[in-house]
Amino acid sequence: MPGLCLSDTIDGGSSPHGVLCDRIPPPYIHCRRARPRRAPDLPHLAWLQRARGFCQDVQKGICVMLDLPSVVFIVFAAVLVGSALAVVTLRNIVHAALFLVLVFGAAAGIYVLLNAEFIAIVQILVYAGAVTILILFAIMLTQNPNSRGSNPSNRQTLIAALIAVALCAGAVFAFAQNTSITTASQKAISGPPGSVVGIGQLLYSPTSYSYVLPFEIASVVLLVAIVGAIVIGRED
Amino acid sequence: MAFTYTITAGDWGHIAPQLTLLGVALLVMVIDTMLPARLRGGLVIIALLGVLSAAASALLVAQLGGAPSAFFGMITSDGLAIFSMLVILGATALALLIAPGYIERQGIHQQGEYYALVLLAATGMLLMSTASNLMMIFLGLELLSLPLYVLCAFVPGQQIAQESGMKYFLLSSFASGFLLYGMALVYGATGATGLTQIHAFVASHMPLDSSLAPLLLVGVVLIVVGLAFKVSAIPFHAWTPDVYQGAPTPVTALMSVGTKTAALVALARILVVALGPITSQWQPLLIALAILTMLGGNLLAATQTNVKRMLAYSSIAHAGYLLIGIAVGTNLGLAAMIFYLAAYGIMNIGAFGVVQVIERSVGFGTELDRFRGLGARQPWLAGAMTVFLLALAGIPGTVGFVAKYAVFSAAVLASHPELTIVGVIASMISFYYYLRIIWAMYFELNPEGDPATQGARAALGAQGTPPLMVESSGQSAVIAAKSVSMRQPIALGAMLSLGLAVLATIILGILPGPLFELARQAVGLP
């Protein structure tokens, strides 16, 4: 979860937000006020200080500072939204499916930014790899991929666009109103590391069976899916 | 994070009912491959024994007591869990009993997979109703949904069955998305997926400040939407009649009771138990859902001519009565709800059990016309249907009345009389369509839709018609007369299931005390 930090809360880790921000690099920083302040002597926050150094040039108002994670985030986000739009607007369904790979890839990039390497790899393996292949196979088996206008659409595009814009505006408004809205979830993810080791220990470690039951149930769900596929796919 | 939790034998003991069912499901699949085709009907006995032993182990877990939760707070075995498990297992047993005859008539050859999937769906229902963690609730929901998608489309070569399975799959996946998103937001707001931890977090952050409220409340709304779909509450009910009609009737019976029980218990755990401190926030939503569902379900049911669809709408209406139990937000409401679930399970599976005897091919031949004159043709079957319909309508002397009384009085005691008033009005509407079936069975002996009379009438009026017509209509009259004199055969299992359901409906209607006392104890009331 990207941290959305007010600059005047980042003062060397004395406030909870400061604590969070040094763990999770936020994609961008709001600087409400630019006032001279003793620079915190935290070496790993150097990039943050640089950002504030730029920020102090601004007399009043809000400036959004761009550091490397923010730039990367914006690039991935732009690719993601652009290809997602291509998926729903392109007339050829094979093109749409291929743009879906870009969507999944960009999402994986954002997961890496959020320190969730495991999810990122799984995203690429399962979604960009397996799911896309599955979709392409389904397209190949069911219709002529060379036909133009094979991506089904309907007359509700305008309504759908309106609802999407309204939802987006609502979400942006809600998050802008509550800058501390992500506090609790940041607390939650600051616990176990989102790395492969952490997840592996949570699931399989002989001394930490806290998530063993959901894990086992998930395998039963897979069993049901296999049996169901055989039943549905029978010939009689 | 310190990894200190170690699994014990007690943990596995807590999920003994689920493990039993799962094991029997696998056993059924394995034995199915070894049996010759003519003996495969015996699989239902193994499945039934599995359900009974799961119920026995549930009672054993209740007897042994011990820690109320297992697997790091993933699963609980409190009174609510035990009671709802017994309701689900009872419904599964009744639905299994009516299955063999139906399977034979519909030409289903894959009996092993059928029983295995039914047992796996029941396992999912048990897991969902005993889950005390959002993650387990979701996994339980998926485990109960996946077999049901397949079972809905189980009758081969029938378009209506394919439609049923596909519709359920697509809409249900959509609803699962809502549910999961809601859970993610609640996790984001509270930092926990365990219901106990969520309760502790919300209780310590009262009143909700503006940084917490939007995330938590949007999450709660999305969870309610996702589960209301499974409960088939209006306005998330649109899938219900089509899916119920196209599914094999024993599966419909199981779905209508088991899925509702699991989803309602999970909803009650999330709202009443975990989010009890913010009852005033979610209560208006639940009250609106309950009122809409009660009125809408009954009004729509009154317009149906297909009895299977009518029962589908009636199950929507009953979801409305059941939601009252959660909407009032008290423990008494919960006790009334689980009592209602037990009563509803008995009478609704009974009603679907009669419908499956009448039904010809899946989804067809259950029109109201087919029930005309049933009282004269098969008095016992018609009598059983009458008992179930009167119970569903809530006539005194049946368990349906006691259940409605419990729910409505819980609403009055929690000072929500508006729910009681709407509920009573909705019940009055329901009398119309329930009594119409009874009327058709006993007082419409000479129906126009009956093939026998049509044929006879055609033969009578044949003097003025060309000879060819006379011949053909005369033949059809003979065939039709044969088909009417041949009564619908009732398989032994179905007879047993219907008999048990009738007995339970009447006995619990006259002596509801012990069961209601159990329901009260289950939610911790003295």
Offer a concise description of the structure:
Chain A is mostly helical and 236 residues long. Chain A has 9 helices and 3 strands; from the N terminus they run βαβαβααααααα. In chain A, helix 3 runs antiparallel to helix 4 and helix 4 packs antiparallel against helix 5 (117-142).
Descriptive key words:
heterodimer, A: 236 residues, mainly alpha, Four Helix Bundle (Hemerythrin (Met), subunit A), 3 domains, three-stranded mixed β-sheet, 3 strands, disordered N terminus, B: 526 residues, two-stranded antiparallel ribbon, 23 helices, 76% helix
How would you describe the overall organization of this protein?
The complex is a heterodimer of chains A (236) and B (526). Chain A has 9 helices and 3 strands, in the order βαβαβααααααα. Chain A starts with a strand and ends with a helix. In chain A, helix 3 (68-89) packs antiparallel against helix 4 and helix 4 runs antiparallel to helix 5. In chain A, helix 1 links the parallel strand 1 and strand 2 (28-31). In chain A, 22% of the residues are buried. Chain A folds into 3 domains: 12-66, no CATH class; 67-148, Four Helix Bundle (Hemerythrin (Met), subunit A), CATH 1.20.120; 191-236, no CATH class. Chain A has helices spanning 16-23, 46-55, 68-89, 93-113, 117-142, 157-177, 183-189, 196-204, 212-232; strands spanning 4-6, 28-31, 63-65. Chain A is mainly alpha-helical. Chain A is globular. With 526 residues, chain B is mainly α. Chain B has one domain. Helix content of chain B is 76%, strand content 1%. Chain B is built from 23 helices and 2 strands. Chain B has helices at 9-14, 16-34, 43-64, 79-97, 99-106, 111-130, 134-152, 159-190, 195-204, 213-231, 240-246, 249-274, 279-301, 307-327, 331-358, 374-377, 379-393, 399-413, 417-443, 451-460, 467-485, 492-510, 513-522; strands at 69-70, 75-76. In chain B, strands 1-2 form a two-stranded antiparallel ribbon. In chain B, strand 1 (69-70) and strand 2 form a beta hairpin. In chain B, helix 11 (240-246) packs antiparallel against helix 12 (249-274) and helix 15 (331-358) packs antiparallel against helix 22. The model of chain B is unreliable at 452-486 (pLDDT under 50).
